[in-house]
Structures are given as structure tokens and as C-alpha cells.
Write a structure and sequence with these properties.
membrane; transmembrane; single chain; transmembrane helix
């Protein structure tokens, strides 16, 4: 039988927690909305 492993919160966490990815997501969504809006207005 194997023993359970105990890890600290930092050891168990695999993702980034600095908040930079929120800005990347925000700007990606904003630029996508602008591009789709521009393309839509160009077609009409």
C-alpha cells in the first residue's frame, strides 16, 4: 500500500498566480472583438 504524499500549496500549484495571464486574456478578447467588429462593418 502506498502512502499519500503531502505537498505544500506552492508545491501542489502548477499554474501562475501573478495575474499576468489575466491581462493577456483581456487584450486577446478585446482585440478579437475589435477585429470581428471591423470585419463585420467592412462587409456591410
Amino acid at each position: 500500500m502506498t502512502r499519500p504524499t503531502f505537498e505544500t500549496t506552492d508545491e501542489a500549484r502548477q499554474g501562475e498566480t501573478s495575474g499576468h495571464m489575466r491581462w493577456v486574456l483581456f487584450w486577446t478578447v478585446a482585440l478579437t472583438v475589435a477585429a470581428v467588429g471591423t470585419a463585420w462593418l467592412t462587409i456591410i
